[in-house]
Amino acid sequence: MLRTVTLAALAAALAASAAHAQSPAGEAPVSDPLFATAAAIGGMAELSISELGAQRATDPELKRFSQQMIAEHTRMNGELATVAARRGVALPRTVDPRAQFCAQSLAGLSGEQFDRCYAKAQLVAHMDSVATFEAEAERGQDADFKALAAKALPHIKEHLKMIMPIAMRYEKEQPSTSGASSEGKTR
Asked: Mean pLDDT for each 10-residue chunk of the chain (187 residues)?
């Protein structure tokens, strides 16, 4: 239960940062090196949890989604690395603690509980990625990074469109019960 609550808290924090990142066009430019760093960390995190999904998901739809994410995010991460190297931007080689914690939390789950939390984690990760790539595509200053973001954005939006109904299905099947305990249940 604690893992579900923790993943729900992580989802809320990422959703809040994604909402904050979405500003109307015409506002202040975004930092291209920060975009590259955020996109690299997000891409590595996506690969990490997608590999877990490919190994642990019991839902065939989630397994297919995981395999597609591994292929597409590997390609996108490579394109980002190429542009970053050309522009002299050093990319991080590891994910941030939040992504590490998410992967560790998912690794401790199995069966339907894994599927439910994994689908939510993918939903949140893709919401965050859409916000990040939209900001760069609209307000980035470097033509190469801007073009990369604009090229990747439709694919990331498609990933979000694919995972949303899966995550919502799990939410409908067993709504989040953050803070709930096993009171009233006998063992």
From this structure: 44 47 66 97 96 97 97 97 97 94 95 96 97 97 98 97 96 60 41
The answer to whether residues 74 and 47 touch, using CB atoms and an 8 Å cutoff, is: yes
pTM value is 0.79
How far is the C-alpha of 156 from the C-alpha of 48, rounded, in Å?
Answer: 16
Other beta carbons less than 10 A from residue 8's beta carbon: 17
Per DSSP (E only), the strands in the chain are none
Non-local (6+) Cβ contacts of 123 within 8 A are: 11, 160, 163, 164, 167
- Residues sharing a CB contact under 8 Å with residue 106, sequence separation 6 or more, in sequence order: 7, 49, 52, 56, 114, 117, 118, 121
CA distance 104 to 23: 32
Domain 2-10+32-173 has CATH 1.20.1260.10: yes
How far is CA 10 from each of CA 6, 59, 80, 114, rounded to the nearest angstrom?
A: 6, 23, 25, 15
Domain parsing of the chain, residue ranges: 2-10+32-173
